[in-house]
Amino acid sequence: MASDIFKKQLRFYRNSVGILVTLMSLLAASTPVQSEEPKPDQKLFTAAAFGPDGRLWRVVPSQYAVAVDFSLDYGKTFSEPTRINPKTQPMNFWDENPPSISVDKQGKVNVLYFADDKQDFTSYFSQSDDGSHFSEPVKVSSKADTNVHYQTEMVTDSQGKVHFLWHDDRDAEEYKKSGGGDLSIYYVTIDPKHSGSLPTDRRIAQNICSCCRSAMALDVEGLPVVFARFVYPVNIRDHGMIKLTADGSHSQPWRVTYDDWKIEGCPTHGPALAISNDGRYHVTWFSQGKAQSGLFYAYSDDNGKSFSHPFSIGHPDKLPGRADVMALGKRVAVVWKEFDGIITRVQAMRSDDGGKRWSSPKMMAETTSVSAHPALINDGERLFLTWSSADMGFQLLRVD
Fold first, then answer.
1. Packing angle between helix 17-27 and helix 2-15, nearest 10 degrees?
2. pLDDT tens, 237-265?
3. In total, how many domains does the chain have?
4. 50 is in which domain, residue-wise?
């Protein structure tokens, strides 16, 4: 059965994450945490975000728990961690399935993490008004106990609403009858008055590439836009977009990239999306298609209906990939990985005119050990790279 094959493939990806990182590079009520230290592979999945007061918050996983701490000096020192999950849970993260943390304008801290339960990599949500006392974690998916879901994205808007989307296999039987794929994107949003249970989630897209993490960002109206890798006819793996609307409905997905990448499997290499306050969409993606191959950036001034000519990122001989993009006014930053066969480096480039012209690439950090994907955050004034590796741990680096 297709869904059974998919589940086996997904478990292979999860259990072989270190190998996959190398292969993809080559292809292109809270209590203080006790003495439990994160294992080296768990340290890779530290996520960070700034609060409205400039405080840097982190979610730090260990083998059986997730904790939150904060820094008042841009990551030089951190507070004592506060544990989120009161009961022991086997944590389950992989490169395209990391935890998330966000802080709204009122300082409420929102945390998303993954743990094994009745289904592997079940996503849980918890929040705190003060960063010290967290709510009982709740499962994000309404079918969490019966259907596999993963790669959950979380975005918090200016009103304090928290938006989630994820990949879900609950419709696999339906797709087999119609000849479609196994995966759907499901979505749910909760308001600041969240009292423990989540509203009913709903499907917003189908025929999603299994292991490529989807991206979500808020437009100028504060509404989510989704950028995902779809499976088009004859196994073409290209990208499309979906727009959520104010009345709770959503657009039909429309195709964005036409690289014509035909592959009998998932590339495990999701795209990135940022939307600046002037409404410009900024995207990055990876492809090995017939039309073009490599890592690319483009922007759109018509809500994603058309994009600028793709701009090639990185040195083609050093296998660029795993890009992230962030916009802060007219300033835009892109970070990505490169690999020379021995050393993995994170490169960065910056634009001060909304993505029209770019600085030369700048090497930000390097390692010979296993590492997470680079990510961008901002404190409202400056752009920062966050990156974790097994040898150096968590790093916060300003992108000038």
1. 90
2. 999 999 999 888 999 999 999 999 999 88
3. 1
4. 29-208
